[in-house]
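dumping this here so i dont lose it
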C-alpha cells in the first residue's frame, strides 16, 4: 500500500475535496480519487473517511490517501503477437489487425487487443500497466472489429488522463485510408451530427439531435466504380467515417452494415470480380495517428500501411482503372 499526504493551500479553500486531491495528486484522475473516497481510503487527521462532496474550509486542512496495491484484472492475458510501433513507460502504439476486437464484452473469453496488451505489459513491456488501480492497459480510443490501424494505449493513470483530454479536445490527428463506392469529389467536408438509429439500435445514423461529427474526405485516386480516399476525423463518433460515407452516398466498399452491392468494373476478370464482390470487411484502415506525448509533450506521429487484404483490393481497382 502507498500513502500520500495532501495539505490544503489557499487556492483550495471552497473547492470540493475530491477536486483538490486530484489537483495535488498528479498520478490520479478525479474519477480515481472518487473511487478511493468511496472505498474509504481517504482519511482526515482523526482517521475517519471523508466524503468527496465536502468542501475545503481553510488552509492547512490535511488528508491521508491510502492507495492499495494494483489489483489483477479479470481478463486472461493472451500471448498472441502484437505489432508494436513504439513503446515507453507511459504509452504503447500498436497496429490493430482487422478481425481483432479491442476489448471483449463482459464474460467473454476471446482473444482481444486488450488481452494481448495485458500479456505484453506483464511480460515484455518492462513493467505493469496501472490504470485506475488495476493492472490493465488504458484503452483511450477504439477501432471497429473489422477496421485495422494505428492505436495508442496508456500505461498509467496520468498518461491515460492526458491522452483522453487530447481526444476530447480533438487535438489528435487521425487519418484513415478507405475505398469508397462511386465517383468521389476531390474534397468533401461532412459536418453532420451522428446518433443511434431509431429502429436498429446496432446502427448509427445522421440525425439532428445527434452528437456533432466532422469528417473531411480527400479523393486520392478515382477509378471507374470506386475511389481511394483519405478520411480525416475532426471528431470521434461510433462508426463515424462509415456513417458519413453512407450519408454522402459513397459508402465504404465491403461495409455490410452501411454499404450496398458494389459496381464491378467492366473489364474486371473473374478473380477481380470475386474479390470486389466478396471483400469480407469494410475497406477502412487507420493509417496515421498523431498526438502529444503525455509526459514529454513531444508531438509524435505514427503511420502504418494498409494490410495485405486492403492493399490487394486497391491494386485490383487500380488495375481495372
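and the seq i came up w/
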Amino acid at each position: 500500500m502507498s500513502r500520500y499526504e495532501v495539505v490544503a493551500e489557499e487556492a483550495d479553500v471552497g473547492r470540493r475535496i475530491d477536486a483538490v486531491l486530484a489537483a495535488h495528486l498528479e498520478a490520479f484522475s478525479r474519477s480515481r480519487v472518487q473511487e478511493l473516497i468511496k472505498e474509504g481510503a481517504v482519511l482526515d487527521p482523526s482517521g475517519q473517511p471523508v466524503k468527496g462532496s465536502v468542501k475545503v474550509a481553510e488552509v492547512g486542512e490535511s488528508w491521508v490517501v491510502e492507495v492499495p496495491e494494483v489489483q489483477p484484472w479479470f481478463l486472461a492475458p493472451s500471448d498472441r503477437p502484437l505489432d508494436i510501433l513504439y513503446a515507453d513507460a507511459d504509452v504503447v502504439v500498436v497496429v490493430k489487425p482487422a478481425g481483432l476486437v479491442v476489448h471483449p464484452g463482459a464474460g467473454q473469453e476471446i482473444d482481444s487487443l486488450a488481452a494481448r496488451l495485458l500479456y505484453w505489459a506483464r511480460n515484455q513491456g518492462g513493467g505493469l500497466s496501472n490504470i485506475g488501480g488495476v493492472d490493465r492497459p488504458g484503452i483511450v480510443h477504439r477501432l471497429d472489429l473489422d477496421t485495422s490501424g494505428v492505436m495508442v494505449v496508456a500505461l498509467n493513470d496520468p498518461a491515460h488522463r492526458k491522452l483522453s483530454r487530447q481526444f476530447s479536445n480533438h487535438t489528435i490527428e487521425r487519418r484513415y485510408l478507405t475505398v469508397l463506392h462511386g465517383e468521389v469529389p476531390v474534397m468533401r467536408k461532412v459536418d453532420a451530427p451522428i446518433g443511434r438509429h431509431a429502429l436498429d439500435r446496432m446502427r448509427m445514423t445522421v440525425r439532428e439531435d445527434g452528437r456533432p461529427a466532422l469528417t473531411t474526405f480527400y479523393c486520392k485516386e478515382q477509378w471507374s466504380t470506386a475511389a481511394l480516399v483519405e478520411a480525416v476525423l475532426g471528431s470521434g463518433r461510433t462508426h463515424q467515417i462509415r456513417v458519413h460515407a453512407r450519408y454522402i452516398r459513397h459508402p465504404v466498399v465491403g461495409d455490410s452494415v452501411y454499404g450496398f452491392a458494389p459496381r464491378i468494373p467492366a473489364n474486371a476478370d473473374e478473380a477481380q470480380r470475386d474479390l470486389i464482390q466478396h471483400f469480407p470487411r469494410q475497406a477502412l484502415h487507420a493509417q496515421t495517428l498523431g498526438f502529444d506525448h503525455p509526459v514529454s509533450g513531444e508531438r509524435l506521429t505514427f503511420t502504418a500501411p494498409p494490410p495485405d487484404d486492403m492493399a490487394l483490393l486497391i491494386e485490383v481497382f487500380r488495375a481495372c482503372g
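The longest strand covers residues 173-181.
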